Amino acid sequence: MTYSYGNSSSPQARSRSNPMAVAALVCGIVGLFVLSVVLGPLAIVFGSLGMRNAERGAARNRGVALAGVILGAIDVVLFVIAMIAVSNGGFSWHIG
From the first residue on, what is the mean pLDDT of each consecutive set of 10 residues in the chain (96 residues)? Predict the structure, then answer.
């Protein structure tokens, strides 16, 4: 019996990465801390494209793409909440 390890030409054996899903996840995580108004929508777009690629079978990691979309939505919601808080006079801390 001969076992073949290494490069295989079958599509099942090859790992198909999903760079859009990874980009969505990175944008979503970084957007929680800085530039959420830009990175949040980018995470949503990249995540949607990554999910589409995963559904077509062109890539894997649909869960990573979904996490990017969710984090992107959280980024946008946090930005909206921050803008509402700032427009209402912001936060003030009074001690004593």
Answer: 58 67 94 91 94 87 91 94 81 68
| CB distance 37 to 81 below 8 Å | no
pTM for the model: 0.74
Boundaries of domain holding 83? 19-87
Listed residue (81, 78, 65, 79) closest to 26, CA to CA: 65
- Measuring CA to CA, which residue among 66, 67, 77, 65 is closest to residue 40? 77
Which is it for the CA torsion 41, 45, 50, 55, positive or negative?
Answer: positive
CB-based contact 47:26 (threshold 8 Å) = no
Does residue 72 form part of some domain?
yes
The helix/strand/coil state of 26 is helix
9 is written with which tokens?
């030409």
